[in-house]
Predict the 3D structure of the following.
Amino acid sequence: MDTVGTVKPDHLDLGATRLRPGWFGLVFAAVWLFYLADPFEAGLSKRDQSAGWIGMGAIVIFAVVYLLSFQWARMRHLTAGDNTPLGPAAGFIGTALVLAVVACVSVGQHGTATVVYLAVMAVFYLPLRTGPIVALCFAAVAYAAGLLVPGWSEDRSLLFGSLAATLAVWGIRGVIKRNADLVAAREENARLAVSQERNRFARDLHDILGHSLTVITVKAELAGRLVDVDLDRTRAELADLERLSRDALADVRRAVEGYRELTLPGELARARLALDAAGIQHWLPNSTDEVPSDLRELFAWTVREGVTNVIRHSAAETCTVTLSADAVEVKDDGRGPTPEALPGNGTRGLRERASAMGATVITETAENGGFLLRVVAR
């Protein structure tokens, strides 16, 4: 059933769905800096030389750059999706690479421990297809240096560590990307839900107020013509105006609260009242028993929309409403389809309701030249 209030837009805080990186990930990354203790200790053993102090400084700054870049990358991945800017990422990696080279020159092969962290940064910051390739290049260069640099030795454990870190972080990167995509999809669904509710609410208000205000306008015009002719009839029309305005206000309140329901007999009764007030002769069914319960609300909306258009646009003298078990029809003998009446917001809203119920809306010129609105259940 098409009601307002299924989703409450005020309760949807789209910004709140964004993920924010916590401190646990940063602490977890800091723990792994333990492996930089070896090159730092190597520099400490050379503290009587400037190279030792340079090496220790390079290792400390390397660790700080690594942690800062790690936190920055996590923020970017979680709040902006998998679109880390290449410029800043290359800047962090380039800075870390320079510091790693300085450490290797200062403290020797112990400085190659930084290669594992460079591999992690490459995979985590660069595009998913590029990062692993750059990481493997870092690992290959470090392994080749162990074979080619005089005084250095082959280090297979470093090669294995770099490959393992590359694979592990590549998997983590994929999980983060999926989480970011999930957040984006959830936000998009929330936006669509809010938009749908706004459109539905606007449609319902149009249908409610369009009909009620049309009847109120017709009765006000009638009361204005009768005020100098029939005072008792004028009082009756003004009393109807007050009642109709109160009913319209109640309908709007129920629509806002999400509890509004239409009844087919009620809409037929309102149609009689409105057509009488407009001076349009009418033929309306006296019973709705043959209409299935699941079609009654749709047919009620059809009667409301059709009669409102007859009064507002048709300049008709007669109006006929016909009901059957699977169809409802509203036709008049007015001037036929007009730009003001077709297609309007009410007609579009009726088509949406009918489509949701598996029914079809038909609008065409009636046999007598007027306008015909028909809704047929499939």
Observations:
- The chain has a mean pLDDT of 80.
- The chain is about 65% helix and 10% strand.
- The radius of gyration is 38 Å.
